[in-house]
Amino acid sequence: MKQNGLNRNKWWDEQQSSSSLPKLEIPYSRAKEEVWQQMETMINKQPASPRINKAPKRFLSFYMAVAAAFMVLLGTSAFFRYYTKTVEAVPGQHLITLLPDGSSISLNAGSSIQYNPLWWPFRRQVQLRGEAFFSVAKSKTFEVVSDLGRTRVLGTRFNIYTRYNQYKVSCYSGKVRVESVLSGETADITANMQACIQPDGKVLSETHKDVNEAKSWRDGMFTFTACPLYQVFEEVERQYGIHIQTPQKLEGLYSGNFTRSHTADEVMHLICRSMGLQFEKTADGYRVY
Q1: Containing H/E element for 78?
Q2: Among 204, 149, 140, 130, which Cα is nearest to 174's?
Q3: CA–CA separation, 156 vs 122, rounded Å?
Q4: What is the mean pLDDT of residues 253-272?
Q5: Contacts of 54 (CB under 8 A, 6+ apart)
Q6: Which of 68, 142, 143, 180 is within CB 3.0–4.6 Å of 201 for a Cys-Cys bond?
Q7: Please, which contacts does 108-112 make with residues 24 or more away whose CB atoms are closer than 8 Å?
Q8: Closest alpha carbon to 278 in 236, 287, 256
Q9: CA angle at residue 248 from 242 to 251, to 5 degrees?
């Protein structure tokens, strides 16, 4: 009981002390609603994002599209201009190929041509190595280019031989202009005429009674008149697709002919017998001694 009395007195003293302290009040000069209203106003007054002018972007896109189209056009034009087609008659083969304008080319064995098929309407030019017979469509300008000479034609038939630093053109119809790459000298020939370009660039032309000899290879006939023997054997190699080993110093001039109806053995007998030579067969052809 005494303890309870002490506790009650202590509680009374604490109440009296707290009631004697000054009352503290935190003044709120604005209502809550007013504060929120002011915050919303401040948010709405934030500086707007700068407006982006879309016009320059549209112009930039246009210029990029034009540039892309130009690059595509340039690339396509370059492809059309420089795309090259090669046609080759390998040793032992004769073939005929047609050009985009309908002109035809017969290729002798070991010969090839190159031209630009996609650029053909703008420039009709063929590069030739070896020997070929051309039948050019009428009313079509045409140019054949080789290391030694150029041949310009308009609706004609002609044969070009370019081997061993020789350039010979035989005309069978129409008109052909032969030009030396070295000297620029030219000569015009017509049917039954032949033009030759000399090593010094001089162009010689004449009427040739045996002009058909130049294209006899198309019929499988090969005629030689005082021809160096090594050239004769090289022609045999081309026509039969074989390899012929010959002495390093093979001299002599051969006159004669053979046809592709003969076998390679028969042709070798024919040539070697007349030149006092011997030959034997090897794995890929013949050896002459």
Answers
A1: helix 54-82
A2: 140
A3: 20
A4: 93
A5: none
A6: 180
A7: 108/132, 108/217, 108/238, 109/238, 109/239, 109/241, 110/237, 110/238, 112/86, 112/87, 112/88
A8: 287
A9: 95
Q: What is the pLDDT of residue 250?
A: 85
Half-sphere exposure of 8 (CA within 13 A, CB side): 5
Helix (H, G, I), strand (E, B) or coil at 37: helix
Between CA 131 and CA 167 the distance in angstroms is 10
Residues 6+ apart with CB under 8 A from 91: 109, 110, 237, 238, 239, 240, 241, 242
Residue 10 is encoded by which pair of tokens? 């202590």
Per this entry, what is the length of the chain?
289
- Percent share of the chain, pLDDT over 90: 58
For 68, phi then psi, to 5°, come to: -65, -40
Instruction: Determine how many CB atoms are found less than 10 A away from the CB of residue 198.
Output: 16
Q: Would you call 150 helix, strand, or coil by DSSP?
A: strand
Spatial CA neighbour of 238 closest among 226, 230, 227, 250: 230
pTM above 0.90? no
Per-residue pLDDT averaged across 67-94, rounded?
A: 75
Q: What's the pLDDT score for residue 243? A: 96
Distance CA 229, CA 249 (A): 11
